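NUDIX hydrolase (Niastella koreensis), 258 aa
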Amino acid sequence: MDDYKRFATEGYRVYVPNISIACTLLGFHDNKLKVLLLRWKGLDKWSLPGGFMKQDEDADEGAARILKERTGLDVYLQQYHTYTSLNRFTIDEPSQKKFKDTFGMEVLKGHWYDKRVIGIGYYGLAEYAKVTRIELDMITIDSRWWPVDDIPENMLFNHHEMIGGAMKALQRDVAHEPVCLKLLPSKFTMAELQCLYESILGYSLDRGNFRKKMMNAGILKDMGESTTRKAHKTPHLYSFDVRAYKKALQSGIIFKLQ
């Protein structure tokens, strides 16, 4: 019995049939906020990393396990929404046929994984350079980082909606949670920090005002280094004063639309 058939026939013993978890894993690369997606075998469709919650774990443990299995990393996670739409887990007939042709198994009506499924949404934050491998499995054939403003249309289930929900939650949380600390490398330029904020918030910030706000907040350390030695004015590298950053987040680091 191959892995898929074993999952189809015996999975309900290990997993909670009606509760799934989907993780919007975000990274910051080339001045863009990106989301990790997986392409399914035979379907030409993409999904978020996810799966059913196990019988012996809670949702937080399940989300951590899912991303640990995919990336090998312990990722910063926040649960942001529970999705209860009646048809969110529906697979259309053409996809069902491809599913059968690819895996040799039908998505049978009334089967344990064909019933209504509640989806718990998490977003995860990772330093892009540290995600050096993505583990594929019996149903996935490819992985790719997509810019959050350019994700593919051919998404499975309601994962397009879930990415949108994760971004709204991130826009809310960036003022009070250590979001930038989790996404940026240990050393970064002021321009990179501003670009990250803009990518999350969805609007531009005045360069001078941004720099002034960051320096006045006292949350950055000037590392006394530059990114290159070629130009007369080279960007300085900064790092977070973690204690000061977390203290500032208690009051909120808030930028208004300009």
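The chain has a mean pLDDT of 89. The longest strand covers residues 15-29. ok done for today
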